[in-house]
């Protein structure tokens, strides 16, 4: 294990990740030509209206992504962030837009899934959350209240992301904000760099190409996450 990680050792770091960090693990990104949104219209699968209108279509969409998770592994970018946590402990927070569990499988524990998790379900009645057990058509009955059906524990468009207060508090205290593998197309995540700037943090973008918000970063590096993130961490 190399010495202390991240040259000029900022005290507190917030890392925002998007689909690009899981791309090299084989998880499709959203806006790429063969991306997730290619096969589906967002409004048909990732909105509460779609779930009300055609729950089976939405369940299938998430069942397929959940099943796919078993066929992918964390890559060197996920592993490098887990090493960073080992060195930083509570002074590091990973905020991910991803609903996969690759950060946790790489060993990260300080992870906020602001858009939810594929492996979690919540009851539309009692609101309880449960680990998802596949496959379940048309929403299974909640094992808790046994009355209402479970829905994917995913933040859909038009819904408020999870743990926003915790995220904003961490951005307020951060010395360094790093964005990895995100196009900066979806809010409020795309606005975090401006918040970090406003709170006086240094900001670094690690992405395959300049994102929509690249101009807001004090530094931007292009390349594959599996190379850029370990190079930055170690
Ligand atoms: C389309 C967009 C304009 N619409 C929005 O932003 C909307 C509406 C909106 C709100 N505020 C606005 C302001 C302006 C305009 C619009 C809005 N936002 C919402 O509805 C949000 C809810 C949005 C969440 C929706 N759910 C997702 N995911 C879960 C579902 C699911 O997964 O199925 S969003 C989903 O899409 C987004 C995809 O973006 P990326 O992850 O960046 O992926 P993408 O494919 O786009 O890009 C990949 C990048 O990686 C790079 N890359 C690829 N390979 C690699 C590689 N190998 N290495 C490095 N980089 C790589 C590529 O170059 C690329 O740049 C992620 O957020 C992802 O989670 N809710 C909300 O605003 O509530 C109110 C509110 C807000 C704040 C406080 C209180 C109330």
From TrEMBL:
Amino acids binding Zn(2+): 123, 126, 142, 145
Residues engaged in binding NAD(+): 18-37, 97-100, 181-183, 207-209, 225
EC numbers: 2.3.1.286
Domain Deacetylase sirtuin-type: 1-234
Subcellular location: Cytoplasm
UniProt binding sites for substrate: 62, 65
Record: active site: 115 (proton acceptor)
Keyword Ubl conjugation: no
Presence of the UniProt keyword Nuclease in the record: no
Catalysis: reaction(s): N(6)-acetyl-L-lysyl-[protein] + NAD(+) + H2O = 2''-O-acetyl-ADP-D-ribose + nicotinamide + L-lysyl-[protein]; N(6)-succinyl-L-lysyl-[protein] + NAD(+) + H2O = 2''-O-succinyl-ADP-D-ribose + nicotinamide + L-lysyl-[protein]
Keywords annotated in UniProt: Cytoplasm, Metal-binding, NAD, Transferase, Zinc
Role: NAD-dependent lysine deacetylase and desuccinylase that specifically removes acetyl and succinyl groups on target proteins. Modulates the activities of several proteins which are inactive in their acylated form.
Record remark on domains: 2 residues (Tyr-62 and Arg-65) present in a large hydrophobic pocket are probably involved in substrate specificity. They are important for desuccinylation activity, but dispensable for deacetylation activity.
The protein, known as: NAD-dependent protein deacylase
Gene name of the record: cobB
